[in-house]
Every structure is written in C-alpha cells, then in structure tokens.
Amino acid sequence: MRRRDFQPTLKDYTYIFLMREAVRKADLLRDRRHRTIVFRLHSELSMDHASTVLDRVILDETGFNIAKVEQRLRGVIDYSKAKTLLLEKKSLVVLLQSDEKLPPFLAVAADNVIEVGLIAPRHLSTALRAGNGIATTTRQAEDLLSFPLEEMFAALRPGRSAETAISKLAEMTATKMPATPQATGYGLEDLSGYGQAKDWGLALAKDISDWRYGRIAWSEIDAGMLLGGPPGTGKTFYAAALAKTCDAHFLATSVAQWQSKGHLGDMLRAMREDFSTASKHSPCVMLLDEFDSIGDRSKFDSRHAQYSTEVVNALLECIDGSSRLEGVVVVGACNDPSKIDPALLRSGRLGSHFFIGLPDCAERHGMLKTLVGVSLRNKELLEIAESTEGFAAADIARLVRVARRAARQSRRPVTIRDFRTAIHPAIPIEGIHRRIVSIHEAGHAVVGTILKIGFLDRITVAPSFRPTSPTPSGETLFVRPSQLFVSRQSYLDEIAMLLGGMAAEDVLLGSFTTGSGGGKGSDLQRSADLATRMQVQFGMGDALGHLHATTSEQLDALRRSNTLIFTRVERLLGQQMERARAILDANRTALEKIADEACVEGTVSGDRVDKHLASSRDHGRLRYY
Q1: Strand ranges (DSSP E) for 43-163?
Q2: Is the separation of the CB atoms in 290 and 248 below 8 Å?
Q3: Is residue 302 part of a domain?
Q4: Can you give the pTM of this predicted structure?
Q5: Given a cut of 80, is residue 139 above it in pLDDT?
C-alpha cells in the first residue's frame, strides 16, 4: 500500500487533518458510489500538498481519481485531466484554487462543491501532536498561523517547542535586514507608548541628519541607549522603527545568537563580526537583545567567572569601538537592567536609559491607529483599546495579525467583529461543561413538551462559546402559535419550562450551576419578570391591582422597592420550580437519554424528544401534567 512508503512531514500532517475534514463534509469515505466532488482551495493553500495527502493517505484504495486544475503557460487553465476522467466515468475529486471560476462542464458534473478554507488552529494543533509530539494551546496555534505558512513550518523543527518557534518567527519578522535603509514600515513618529524613548529617538534622527551633512561630528551624538521593560512591550519594534526614522540600516542580534556559535572563541568571533557588519552598513541601528544576560562581573559565579569576564570585556571593546567607527547606534534591550555590568551603562557607551511599560488606553489607541489604519472607525478603535487592558505592544500587534487573518480567510475587509473574536477567543464546550449544558437544555425540552407550551423544533448544544457573545452555549427552540389571549395556566407553564433547565441539573447532578441565573435574558430573569407581571399587571397573582412597568429594569425596580411584590414573586417561582422538578423526576429516564444524545450529537430534534418520552412512558414512567 502506498501509504506505507509515505513519511509525512509536519506540513503533510497539517494538510491531512485539513483535507480529512473536507472529505468528511463531502461524505466521501462512507458513500463511495460514483461521484464527482470539487474542492475549491483557498489561494494560500498548496494544491500539491492537498493532492498528495488525498492521493496517498486519505483516499488511498477508495477508487477515487484526483485531478488538479492548474495554470499553465501564459495563464491558460488546464482542465484536460478532469475532462478525460469525466469521459472515462471515473469517480473523481477535482482540486482548484478558490479564485478560479468553475467552467460549465464541471459545474454541471459536480455532485458537491466544498470550499476549503485556511488552516485553522485545530488542524495545526493536531498535526503538531501527531507529527512532532508536542502539545499546543489554541492561542499558540493562532500565534503560529499569524505568520507566513512556509516560514511557520520552517520554524517548527522537530523537538522545538511552540513558544520557541513563535519567538524565532517574531524575531525574524522584526530583524530582517533589508537591502535598503528602510528597516520597517513604521517610524518612531508613527508609534505610541514609548514616552521619553521616542523623544530621544527623534532627537537622534535630527543629529544623524546633521552628521550626514557634516554639520556635527559623530562624537557629539549620543549613540547608545538601554531599553528596559517586561517581555512583549515592543523593544525590538522600537529599535526597528528608530532605524526607519533615522534612515539607517537595522541589524538585530543577541547574546544567545553569539553563544549558539560554539565555545568562547566562536562566540567572541560572532560578536565582533556583527559589530563589523554594522560598521560596514553605516549609518546602522544595532539592537543587542537579551542584554541583561551578559551579566555583571562583580556577581559572577567563581566556576564561570573567567568565561563571563572575557565576554563582558570583549563587548566593552566592541561598544567602545563603535564610538570610534562612525555611524553605529547601539541599542541594548533587557528585562532587568540591574543585572548588567555598570561599565556597559556609562556615558559614551549605553548611557541613556529608558523603561517601557505596558501601554495605557490612549497609547493602545495610538498603536491601533498605526497598525490598522483607516479600516476601522475611530470609535471602533477606541472600543478595542478599552478592551485590551493589560496588553503589551506585542499583544496588540498579534491581535491585529489574527483579526486580519480572519478577514482574509473570509475574503473581506477587517471588521470590529474580527477583533472582538480575537480578544475573546472561542472556549470549547466539552467534558463536564458539555454534559451540564446538555442536561440543562434537555430539562427545558422535557418540561416544555409535557406541558405543551408549543411545538419543540430542536435542542442545540454549541461546540464552543465566547463570554462576550450573545450566542448561547445551548438552546431549546419551541415554535408557538400566536395567541390573542393568554391564560394564567399558560404563564405558569412558561415559567415552569424556563426553570426546567435549573431543575434538570438539580435532578441529575444534585445541584445547579449559574447557567440559569445572571444578567438580562437569563432563565431566572425572564421567569421573575413574567411572575412580576402576573402579580402587578395581569391580575393573576395574589391580589388585584395594576402597576405600570414596560421594561425589565422597571419590573426589577418594582421588586426591589416593594417587599410584598418580591415575596409573592419568589413564592410563585418556588412553586413552579418544584413543579418542573416533579415532571423531570417522573420522566428521568427520558431526560437522561435526551441529555446523552444532545451531548454526543450536538442537536436533538423535537421528534426524537417525543420518542424518548414515549419510550419512558411505555416502560412504566408516569408523565406529569
């Protein structure tokens, strides 16, 4: 079998899980009759990889033939293989890019057309576990996919963690040294959140301009600075923007890069070569990342003192050399300045010191204006800024990448919804949480069906939820005929149904969660409002009378201000809660089966609920009315 000879790479594994999902949508593996299926691949996907994993892994020995529709010389689209296989009456899978229009012959021949979108975090996470044996979080997978795919796969070497790969990719993005002085798309003048460090950089740019025209000597320029601050606050981004503003080349390196070259001699050679490169590309902004890892000679452990001292001495020599060799600006970036040898921080070396903390709301707003541009209105940018409290500059940049990727996948401009989704990613509903939601919705369905409050269309349990989304984690949908007049019993049945979710949790789990309570629109809030209107507006409570209230807020105010109303509402809700619990106790077997089916399938039709209830009755359970 061909798959025995196939040794998949991480990229292959990713495409296997992506295309296997598409194959399931087309129902190819279960239904193998003669068919023609078209997979329209997103333009960023590799047709070769999709074709390979279909042919050698997913559809191997199924009898399906695979035809790639590709562009040939002079832009001609070649459909010859697909036409030939159709004429031969072969079971056929056709692959083409999504931006290519289906020709008439293929549009009428296709039994199904499946759109295959971009690689999703779930595909990458599963592939990393299968191919590299490492586990990743959803956020890590999103971070990885925000980079170009080829570079991402190159960074995910066997044995390397997701965090290391992300760091490598971020470093690559920030530190690529271009052939022209333009090191980044943004200059310091475009950035927000850098305070005095920004002022220092703008002044430096003016000094370098004067130096270029011979107005001042290089020795008059303050050409060394130290940037301190927690990870992710944008120190590397600042250095690249400084190079842009100064119209200088940008070279980034780090102590770790030098150490990776080998023993002490190799490390010192790599250090001196970087300083030499910076000098040759004068004017140049040279970033020394992880600067605090160089250490302080007065604090070195005796076992490594000689090695570490030689490293510090060599770096001092190089930095002093950069002041003699004109045109090199040295920027050190670190998390903890207290660990750095004081000699490196003296005037004439890295004498200017700045701390970059987390940006405030105004600074985040400025960053978003720079990164997003005019795609969103200022009001929307302000909403995002207010929603990202505690985000560092790197977090803001990541947020923009993830939002743009979502828009790109849907082939549309970026919107505020993309940012809301990225800020509050979907949380999977699984395990015990999925069980609770299923029981809750089954409770609504059983009570509502038995009390005949309407026609039950379906129960739905969502695969995930977002805390800020109005979309519920579960839903029980009843279709009800319009009524001109509603009886007291109908209102009581409605309240019992609304409390059925809470009652079901209590019956099957012995307690209930916050799923029924909470804010506006919750089961308990709707029940309380309905009970209040029965008491004070419809004459269906303990006394006649009428108090005007049209909104939930006004009904809530009535309950808060009048103890008698609150007590009557509370008593009515307690009675209907006990009624719902009794109904569910009498139909416990059906309740459990419906909850089990909802948990596994994600949806249960009204007909299935009726069958479960009928089965429960036939086996001796009594239905409660």
Answers
A1: 65-68, 70-71, 77-78, 92-97, 112-116
A2: no
A3: yes
A4: 0.46
A5: no
